[in-house]
Recover the amino acids of this structure.
């Protein structure tokens, strides 16, 4: 089995051996329908390499998938007629079968040649399907990740709701207790203050959560506003380019038409002068519109840079408010 795996597996690996006429494959079959391989005798000065014969047999054994078995029999040329019909033997072996070795080695299998475009189309379809599958998988993964984050948030929110419900129930149980004397009412007030203090202490991070929520809402509002501005700017730019191309195209058409008419008389014609004036007005309007568009673009870029600077400044100030004193206390060497 090891020798079988080490043998040739591709036709191109034994093509040079066939071209050297080490073996011939004329398509001959014996009287029992078994295929025949011909190994022509060589002169003593150029003996056949046994590895070439071995590679050919291994290849033929591989392509037949073990369906056929090989048997070696020593038969003289004169005795071939007993096993093989003369019509199946080549002329050099005394038969009548026409066989061109060079043409047979160079000719490809017509079935394989016809199937190659279909196989190429299948491979391309498989590659396209793989890319589509990967895109769908990535989209699905992102959706699942978003769902997972949402579920985590819902779990945290549910814990917060549960905490509020429990403490609200405790408060509702004692809501109408006002005491029957000044002393009992004072005790109830003290208990109420302690309960409110405990509720505020247990509600960890309430201020931070509200601050983060406000920051998130503000950042989202700015981001959405920037998206709307960007979309509006692109729509205006697209409309400008379309109208400018249309105006330039019409101006060129008019110019070519007027040039085709030719003659000095046309230059004195009022219509021609009017057309020239209109073209100049369109050109000036085009330049003014382009200048306004450039100015608007620069202004928007400056505004976006200002927004980014304000955001960074706000983050620095917030960090200083939250961690500045602690940092200075740790690093006393800082003036």
């Amino acid at each position: 089995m090891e020798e079988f795996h080490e043998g040739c597996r591709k036709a191109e690996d034994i093509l040079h051996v066939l071209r050297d006429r080490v073996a011939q494959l004329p398509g001959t079959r014996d009287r029992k329908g078994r295929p025949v391989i011909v190994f022509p005798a060589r002169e003593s000065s150029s003996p056949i390499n046994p590895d070439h014969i071995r590679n050919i047999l291994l290849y033929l054994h591989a392509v037949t998938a073990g369906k056929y078995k090989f048997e070696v029999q020593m038969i003289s040329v004169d005795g071939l007629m007993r096993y093989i019909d003369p019509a199946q033997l080549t002329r050099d072996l005394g038969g009548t079968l026409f066989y061109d070795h060079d043409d047979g080695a160079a000719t490809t299998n017509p079935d394989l040649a016809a199937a190659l475009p279909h196989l190429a189309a299948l491979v391309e379809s498989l590659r396209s399907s793989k890319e589509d599958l990967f895109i769908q998988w990535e989209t699905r993964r992102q959706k699942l990740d978003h769902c997972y984050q949402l579920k985590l948030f819902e779990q945290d929110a549910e814990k917060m709701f549960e905490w509020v419900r429990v403490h609200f129930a405790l408060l509702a149980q004692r809501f109408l207790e006002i005491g029957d004397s000044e002393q009992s009412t004072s005790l109830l007030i003290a208990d109420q203050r302690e309960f409110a203090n405990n509720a505020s202490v247990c509600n960890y991070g309430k201020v931070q959560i509200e601050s983060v929520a406000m920051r998130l809402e503000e950042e989202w509002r700015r981001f959405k506003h920037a998206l709307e501005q960007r979309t509006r700017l692109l729509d205006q730019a697209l409309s400008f380019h379309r109208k400018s191309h249309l105006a330039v195209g019409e101006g060129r058409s008019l110019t070519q038409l007027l040039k085709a008419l030719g003659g000095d008389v046309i230059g004195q014609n009022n219509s021609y002068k009017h057309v020239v004036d209109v073209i100049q007005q369109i050109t000036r309007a085009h330049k003014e519109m382009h200048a306004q568009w450039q100015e608007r673009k620069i202004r928007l870029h400056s505004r976006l840079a200002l927004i980014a600077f304000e955001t960074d400044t706000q983050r620095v100030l917030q960090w200083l408010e939250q961690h500045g004193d602690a940092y200075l206390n740790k690093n006393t060497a800082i003036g």
In short: The radius of gyration is 46 Å. The CA atoms of residues 23 and 39 lie 5 Å apart.
